Amino acid sequence: MVLLKKYIVLVLFSICFAVNAQNTYKNWPDIIRKSDAGWFGTEEAKKIAENVLLYQRDIGGWPKNIQMQQELTPQQKKDLQALKKSTKEITTDNSATCQEMLFMSKMYAQVKDERYKDSFLKGLNYLFEAQYSNGGWPQFYPLKKGYYTHITYNDDSMVNILNIMKHVSDDTDFYSIKPSKETIEKAKKSFDKGIDCILKTQYKQNGVLTAWCAQHDEVTFAPANARAFELASLSGYESAKIVLLLMSIEKPSAEIITAVKSAHAWFEKTKITNLEEKRILNDEGKIIDKNMIVTQNAAPIWARFMELDNNEPFFSDRDGVKKKSLDEIGAERRNGYSWYTDAPKEVLKKFPAWAIKNGVKLTSAASVDKKKANFFTVALDGSGDFTKIQEAINACPSFPYEKVTVFVKNGIYNEKIRIPEWNTHLALVGESKENTIITFDDNFSKINTGRNSTFFTYTILVEGDDFSASNLTIKNASGDNGQAIALSLVANRAQVSNCSILGNQDTLYLSGKNAKQYFKDCYIEGTTDFIFGSATALFENCEIRSIKNSYITAASTPQDTTFGFVFKNCKLTAEPAATAVYLGRPWRIYAKTVYIDCDMGKHIRPEGWHNWSKPEAEQNAFYAEYNGKGEGFQPTKRVSWSNQLTKKEAAKYTIENILKDSIANWYSK
User: Fold this and answer.
1) Membrane-spanning residues where (predicted)?
2) Looking at 362, 384, 399, which one is the last position of a domain?
3) Active-site residue among 173, 529, 599, 661?
4) DSSP characters for 351-385?
5) Residue 146: domain span
6) How far apart are CA 605 and CA 549, in angstroms?
7) Does 170 qualify as catalytic in the annotation?
8) What would the pLDDT profile of 139-174 be if each residue is shown by its tens digit?
């Protein structure tokens, strides 16, 4: 019996190996699009072609998501033959029918089997029959009840069909099968009707043409829902192929030119340039998680679904409830669907040449007005739009779709500035770090409003998410007179680069619910707890300068937060008076602070860390270092409750991991 079982297993393994050995590709679309032309004359290709012929129904179309290359049993072949007259589940969704027609064309180019030609022409007739009188196509034909009857741009279904019609009507060499003149003329009329449908379904937002939705009502042309998580919306993905199709038309009409120009402007308006998808794969290469991370100057991407009235991206689970961020939906939909796309970048790439060819100006009054609305200049001498920074901020649009820049010319601006939560996507850019100085002199005693007076002492308060600052000096000029904040960040997704942040006690306050903040190439100085708060913050290539003996950090990291303050490749320096400085102490007992690859001056105390007279912090706080250098890096003398990371542990402290956003998407510049 044991020998028999082993024999059966061996036979089954051999059969599986033999079947798999015949299939060069795992996926059916790969066979169609990636094989060399000569392969379509092989016996293997002919064998697959027999399957494709079996799967085609008498009506001319094919069902979707079939791996046509898989070997069929005699019973399966018999069952498929019995289904020939059935019209159920015949579709153009997921490239069905269109891709099988392409396969038959490639087969006929190598093997003049008339069955391949007939199969292609049957497919073409199916497409003719499925087209609505208004020029659109449904997802399934014969019609299937539900959203399937809508005009379907989803997954490029209608564009795929129209590309077939275009090649046939233009009599190109793309397909090896040449239809009759009557069929060519029929394809031309079908194509023209389809383009007319596209023009009529382009969505107007407040009277301005934008893009297209994945589905439109087949009668009213209005945006329409599909599956529960595919709500009516403007589509960053489907719209791209529609525009590329329109741009491929020789001698386009005025209506087509307007449609392309309008869609191009919409793509420019809605692109996201500082967000990147991070995919986590298992050992089998399957996606097990997706995260969106901040990336400066990232290649542009677009959301798959955007609100019809304001272009705001949204996401939805199978319950059909809109969410503003990808992490708010369940893992099944988050990882099993394409929520972002880079497809429109081809439109942006090809538009200039198309515009020149068709006599379209590349600049317009509208673009100039748009730039003005998103760019303000502040100058003390009156040469800009404003003389005060706060006035410029007050003039910025609330909750803008794109980055708004406030450019500040050199000068000393004695202002107390607030960037409120509705001023999102704001970039504060100085002319130079050395000479663009924003300063104020509030401190705890001067404010004198009670125990929380510290939080009112800021020179700049940032409440609006998606904030960036560069080439500035931000200073609290009150001197060594107690708590006095220079920069207070209570915003998510804040980036500060090439800035000097100057003060004494409590120079830099970092907070905000689940906030992630990033400092690069900055100079930060202070005395006691001069970097403090609850945010997750990464400091890279920064100089951290202590003015006197005290503490650099006072983190109040929330419990169960993975990262707190992380310093990488930073230099810890000090004034001559500072000879005994702690790396940090816990404002709250779950504080987290880590120094990686940092150069520590001799002013750093050998023990490194202080417990702030909180014994429980020694059990709960996480203080660590890795690969430090300089006289102040003395790992063997550190307090016993601190940590020296291993190389493997330190490798987890990447910008992607630290700044992975758990609340909302990184903003679009």
Assistant:
1) none
2) 362
3) 529
4) HHHHHHHTT--S--HHHHHHHHHTEEEE-TTS-SS
5) 23-201
6) 10
7) no
8) 999 999 999 999 999 999 999 999 999 999 999 999
